[in-house]
Write a structure and sequence with these properties.
Layout lengths: L2 H53 L6 H81 L1
């Protein structure tokens, strides 16, 4: 295999790595957004529960109590959905990280192969050069 064709392969592998790195960055930003949303929802939930605990001694109308109960249910449902979405994004992040590791390994294999080919060619050139010099020396000595 020609080292120049390996250079093209290495460039493609590097491009793939860069693409995966940018995808990782996007996923990490999305995860951070989901984590902020979850934290905000948890704080809202905690605050509403705290308010309910403070009002529990006060007389609450049945309609208001039912509305509050539905609100907490909706908040809990939204929180669970966000957590599931976050879990899926984290799984996606892990898969993308594995793809990055795979791309890095593939690039390193191509680089190592190129280095080996270049080294082998240099070795062959040195042997050929040494052989030529030895032949010249033998010819000179035989004269």
């Amino acid at each position: 295999m020609n080292p120049s064709s390996l250079n093209a392969i290495i460039q493609l592998k590097q491009w793939k790595e860069d693409e995966i790195k940018s995808e990782l960055l996007k996923i990490k930003q999305i995860i951070a957004t989901h984590e902020r949303d979850i934290k905000r929802l948890e704080e809202d939930f905690s605050m509403k529960v705290h308010e309910a605990m403070q009002r529990r001694h006060a007389q609450m109308e049945a309609e208001l109590l039912q509305e509050f109960h539905h609100y907490l249910q909706d908040l809990t449902k939204a929180l669970e959905e966000k957590k599931q979405l976050l879990k899926r994004r984290i799984d996606e992040l892990k898969k993308t990280e594995n793809a990055l590791i795979q791309a890095y390994q593939e690039r390193r294999i191509a680089e190592n192969l190129k280095e080996r080919i270049v080294h082998d060619r240099q070795l062959i050139e040195r042997k050929t050069e040494t052989k030529t010099l030895d032949e010249l020396a033998v010819r000179r000595m035989s004269r």
